[in-house]
Specification:
By secondary structure, the chain is an alpha/beta fold. The protein has 2 domains: 93 residues; 186 residues, Ribonuclease Inhibitor (Leucine-rich repeat, LRR (right-handed beta-alpha superhelix)), CATH 3.80.10.10. Helix content is 25%, strand content 16%. It has an 8-stranded mixed sheet with strand order 5-4-7-8-9-10-11-12, covered by helices on one side. α1 packs antiparallel against α2.
Length: 305
């Protein structure tokens, strides 16, 4: 028995019980009509005591009819409402198959070199991105609509070192193809960095985490961005342990670590990033000896201290 049927059943039971509390007795009254309904625990005095209490069958059938009409009407009403809701839900699902409640998981293309295949697990993207891909200039992705984790920016057409606002990082977002894209994480709130799994790994070129509440372990969610060329961790509480997550990111070209807890323990990790072109270590705990080691290992990198 479903919830609707239970409601109808209980309503009918209460109706019958309520009528049963006042039986349709036929009693003495004006012009022989029955008296007002008397409760079962206090029956009225019969007109002819020798005959006992007489039943008013007209009222009995009326009560039965009321129960039948009400219970039948409730059943029809609930069925109509259920059918309408089902139809509306089917319409919504057909019209918007990739709503936040029906995410679509991207399956990565087959790659003969499995070690280079991007980790697409948990990546959510609107199926509109697959509709006539050749004719669209956007990747469309979905993030939670109720809370922005930051902002998306695109590289300025006039100044390659500048970024222009694109959209808040929430809800449905159109990301232009062929553009360098940066995610600037919100600086005034605790951000769930696990939400980065909702962003396809090939979209981001840059991440600005400066002045955020990022922790060492949060950078484990950054390594999946295979195109990431620069990351700004300035004015955060990250330590050398955070950089262990970046050790394998050979795409990185620029890193800012100003005013962090980075010290000489991070030298070996940074030295592995052989393609670095710029490294800023201002106001860090790296010693002169550590900087010299980095300069020897990263001969093509501009190191600022």
């Amino acid at each position: 028995m479903g919830s609707t049927q239970r409601i109808i059943f209980l309503t009918t039971v209460f109706l019958i019980a309520g009528m049963g509390m006042c039986p349709p007795w036929k009693e003495a009254g004006p012009k022989g009509l029955p008296l007002p309904m008397a409760p079962i625990y206090a029956p009225p005095v019969p007109k002819n005591p020798e005959n006992g209490l007489e039943i008013d069958f007209a009222r009995l059938f009326l009560q039965a009819g009321v129960v039948f009409v009400l219970s039948g009407g409730l059943q029809i009403a609930f069925q109509d409402k259920s059918n309408k809701n089902n139809g509306l839900n089917q319409f919504k699902q057909a019209a918007n198959p990739a709503s936040p409640f029906n995410p679509v998981t991207i399956v990565p293309p087959v790659n003969s070199d499995a070690s280079k295949a991007p980790d697409m697990k948990d990546v959510l993207i609107h199926p509109a991105a697959f509709k006539d891909v050749a004719a669209t200039d956007f990747d469309i992705l979905e993030l939670p609509a109720h809370l922005a984790i930051g902002e998306f920016l695109v590289e300025s057409e006039t100044d390659p070192d500048s970024w222009e606002w694109l959209a808040d990082a929430k809800g449905t977002i159109k990301v232009p193809k062929g553009k360098s894209v940066q995610l600037e994480v919100a600086k005034d709130k605790d951000v769930d960095f696990a939400l980065l799994k909702r962003i396809p790994p090939q979209i981001l070129d840059s991440m600005d985490l400066s002045q955020t509440k990022v922790r060492d372990e949060d950078l484990a969610n950054v390594t999946r961005f295979t195109r990431l060329k620069e990351i700004d961790l300035s004015d955060t509480d990250v330590t050398a342990k955070a950089l262990e997550h970046l050790r394998t990111m050979k795409s990185l070209r620029k890193i800012w670590l100003d005013n962090t807890h980075i010290d000489d323990e991070a030298i070996a990790t940074l030295a592995d990033l052989s393609k670095l072109q710029k490294l800023s270590l201002k106001d860090c705990n790296v010693t002169d000896a550590g900087v010299n080691k980095l300069k020897a290992s990263l001969s093509n990198c501009k190191i600022e201290v």
